[in-house]
Amino acid sequence: MLANKHILLIVGGGIAAFKSLDLVRRLRERGARVTPVLTKAGAEFVTPLSLSALSASKLYQELFDLNDEAEMGHIELSRAADLIVVAPATADLMAKMAGGLANDLASTLLLATDKRVLIAPSMNVRMWEHPATQRNLATLQGDGILVVGPNEGDMACGEYGPGRMAEVPEIIAAIDIALSDGPLKGRHVLVTSGPTHEPIDPVRYIANRSSGAQGTAIASALLALGADVTFVTGPADVPPPMGVTVVKVQTAKEMLDAVLNAPAADAAIFAAAVADWHVANAAVSKIKKDGTGLPRLDFAQNPDILATVSQMTDGRPKLVVGFAAETDDVIANATAKRLRKQCDWIVANDVSPETGIMGGTENAVTLISEHGAESWPRIGKDAVAAKLAARIAEALV
Ligand code: CTP
Predict the structure, then answer these.
(1) CB 306 near ligand 1, within 6 Å
(2) What is the DSSP letter of 273?
(3) 188-396 has CATH 3.40.50.10300 classification
């Protein structure tokens, strides 16, 4: 898959920079062409000569090098590659990217590019866990930057925890996905996932047991087929997949707004377990046990996001897929739900507690369309996702 692909590799200043030398070798073994860019800090860890010799390419280092600009300007350099890989991506480089700074060659290329960018973060565990880095990570993921790692383990600085750069085979696997020319290449798919939280007061909320595992697996499977994925997620247990554009929401109302504001999609998959009601009289201050009796909650209906999108007259995705979480008469209820909401497909599943499906790793679904009901065997949520993504790809051709 990497044959004839051109990768611009930005090597930042971290102890893991030595692994980037091996990365260059492995990428070239797979037929990729690598153009290296070494930051000033990166040059403290690996030599320009070793990077340019291993890549058999000219090495770029400074922003204002008149010779380089005459041969290939920095804008062109940022767009000539199929993919930009930043390995190691230091806390400093991530902060520059998140803030849109362009004060050296690497940050300028990253701001000027119109290509996908994959970063392999590497830093001390405290730096990784610092709220500033986590904020920057969320910003970058929201911008559609792909992230691989970091891994947990012993660090060069003697501490233990997440922060070690992903290993070379993991980075290559992520590059493979990023460059995949799958059947959904050029298609935009929207996925909703996770539960919603409906506030009772500033500290309490109503929620459900959805972990977000199935929606996350579907987003990953769509990504693996080459789709651009917008992932609108409530507060889920599992982290969003790497490489999607993440929009985090809390309530059903926020989820609807995020869905309606997302770029036009070819397909939309509604895997979120949206709360049906919100508390109409949610308190602005914490409700106290002040002796005046039990609090009274008034409920109001939430907007039905799936039905809203299914019934759009303008800009409706070609394929709209809903889920039906049922405990009784699964197929009959789900079939009626498809017609009521006017989506194209419904993926029905039995969420009775004894099935262990809600919050579990497996799922047994029935795909309901205008052609009838097709039951799939009980398989892992990842396998359900892969099968569904393949069907979506077939439906969009
Ligand atoms: N859904 C939605 N917005 C809502 C409620 C549900 O988009 N306010 C979507 C879910 O993401 C799912 C589908 O509708 O794809 C069905 O969800 P489900 O909870 O099974 O159905 P409900 O609409 O809640 O119907 P009921 O409560 O009658 O089972």
Answers:
(1) yes
(2) B
(3) yes
